[in-house]
Every structure is written in C-alpha cells, then in structure tokens.
Amino acid sequence: MLLEVLLLLGICAKTLAQMPDRIIFPDIDDFESECTLSDGEQGMCRNIRYCPSALDSRERVKTCYFERSEQIVCCRDVPKEYATTRACSSYYPLVDQMVSGLSTRPNEFPYMIALGFETMLPDLFEFKCGGVLIAPNFVLTAAHCARIGGATPSVVLPGGGSLTDYSVRKHEIADVLIHPDYDPKKAYNDIALLKLKQPIVNFQPACLGATALLDNENITAIGYGHTQFGGRSSDDLLKAYLLVVSSKACQKFYKDSVELPRGLMDTQFCAQDRQFGRDTCQGDSGGPLILKNIHIPYVVGITSFGLGCATEAPGVYTRVSKYLHWIEPIVWPN
Question: What is the pLDDT of residues 110-144, one digit of tens each?
Fold first, then answer.
C-alpha cells in the first residue's frame, strides 16, 4: 500500500512540474463560434458588449457560456468593418468641465479641442464649447455648439492644454456641418462636424466607439467647463469619471423636459458620478466622453445637456455609435 501511495505521489509531482508557471487566459474574442438563436436563425457566440441586438431589451438573449466574468451570447449581428475602425488602426498601430473635476496630466488628452468664437477684438477668441479631433481635418462636437446666438465657431485650439497657452497654433474652420435632423429647440441629434482648413498633424485623433455601452460602464468626461453651476470656467482641461446610467433610471428626471418631448431616445444615454458629485457643466458642451480599451481612446458620447451641474439628475449625452452612418461618408468618403 505504501509503495502505491509513493508511486502516485511521484506521478503527480511529475505532472505538476510539466505545467506552466502561470495560467494564460485566451482572448475572449477568440471564442467566436456558430450558434442557433431562439428563433432558429444562425448566430455567432460573442461577448455581449459587442452584440447590439442582445443589449436591446426586446431581444431574447441566449447565453452561449461565461468566460471569466464576461457573458458570451448568441448574437445575430453580422460583424461590420467601419471606416472609423480602419482609421483607428492607423492612429494607434502598435497597441499590446467639470464639476469638482480633476486636473489632467500634460498631453493626457491630445485629441481634446476647444471651439473659439470671434470677439470684438482682433485675434482674441472666446472658447465656449469643446470638441474632439476624430481625423486630422475633422472635429466632432455638439450641434448646439456649432451655432451660438447666431455665431459659428471660427477656430479650434487642439491639444487639450491650457486655453492660455499661446504657443499652440489655432486652426481655422472651413465648414460647419450640423446633423440634418437637429432642431435647436430640442436635444435630439445634437451632433455636428467641423471641417478644418488645414489638417492638425501634431496631435493624435481619438477613435470612434462603434459598440454598445453597458449600464454602469466607466467612462471619462473632459472639458473646460465651469467648476460649479453659474461659476467661472476653467482655463485648464478637467476630467470627471462617470458611470453610464440606464435609460429607465434616467428617464424619470427628464419626463417633463421641453428638450426631450419624446423622452430619451436610443441615440442618447445618461451618465453621472453620484459618489463624488462630479459632472459636466456649462462650457463642457460638445466635449467627448471617452472609453479607453487597452490604452486606445474611443469617443462614445458628446456632452449635450443636463439639469444644472452635479445635481441628482444624470447628464444627457449624444450616443456616437448611432451616428456612424452619418459621420463616416463625410470624414472617410472612400
């Protein structure tokens, strides 16, 4: 009996010695395989965050399995290669305002843009809104920032640095393209593109998020807005960490809003930070909400509007992924 035990221990020791010293988890995306949906149609097993139909409450979700803490579902969506995906690969080829906002590090958000409006004084501009560089010659912003009091922005200041840094070159705007379905009296389709006269070559653009956002997802808002409601704006770029709020939870705050007569649409989403009271505020409009994935910044939202600053009500943001069909033919026509 003792001999058998010693022999068994010897086999186990040899087996353990041959095992790797660390466990390697394969990439979740490597597990895509065919599956059958509840209605009999063919689908692919895919991470739920990359399956818009599964995130639609009207779609009955069928789970393939769980990989770590991620739900892998049977997805009916056919993968689509967006022009923004190809552009993003060229931007990042080698990859292994703010209420009570936090200061940003130098060059932390090089794609951040400040929109400058002409004043009565020559060569002096008032920066009233934000935007984000998505291509060397295009800036994405909010539609309500593209025309304020009848005036349109005339220059952009790139780099995400201080508004008082006069060493950074301002770039002139050639054309302002407001979404055709935008109504200034409402907050729907609050998105616009600014075409620049000359490309910005010394600051890297951000990528556009093409996938669906999950409730409670962590995102970062950046802007030069007011540090408190009705207060003065910041000359330095600020950031705030927010969580995506479900449309159902957000809807109750805006049920009587004149800006949202049809309620929240799927082209919008809400976000806030209840723990520390950070939020976007006046002056942050048009600025991006960023979701980082393996250090690549994806623009998932554009600051639209809210009820005050850092109130109980979440802020409302334009969902960028819903406008790729409008953005791509303009920015990447080929």
Answer: 999 999 999 998 888 998 899 999 999 999 999 99
The residue from 179, 190, 273, 304 that is catalytic is 190
The pTM assigned to this predicted structure is 0.72
For the domain with range 29-79, which CATH number is right: 3.30.70, 3.30.1640, 1.10.10, 3.40.630? 3.30.1640
Q: Domain 207-323: give its CATH code.
A: 2.40.10.10
In the prediction, which pLDDT does 124 show? 87
Q: Is 89 an annotated catalytic residue? A: no
pLDDT recorded at residue 30: 41
Interval 166-193: pLDDT, tens: 878 899 999 999 999 999 999 999 999 9
In the set 233, 234, 285, 321, the catalytic residue is 285
Sheet strand arrangement including 34-36:
34-36, 42-47, 70-75, 63-67
Pairing verdict, β 296-305 and 207-208:
parallel
Is 285 considered catalytic here? yes
DSSP per-residue codes, 38-57: TTS-EEEEEEGGG-HHHHST
**Is there a catalytic annotation at residue 190?**
yes
pLDDT tens for 295-319 read 889 999 999 988 766 567 889 999 9
Three-class secondary structure assignment of 232-263:
CECCCCEEEEEEEECHHHHHCCCCCCCCCCCC
Return d(Cα 324, Cα 84) in angstroms, integer: 8
CATH tag, 109-205+325-331: 2.40.10.10
Topology alike, domains 109-205+325-331 and 207-323: yes
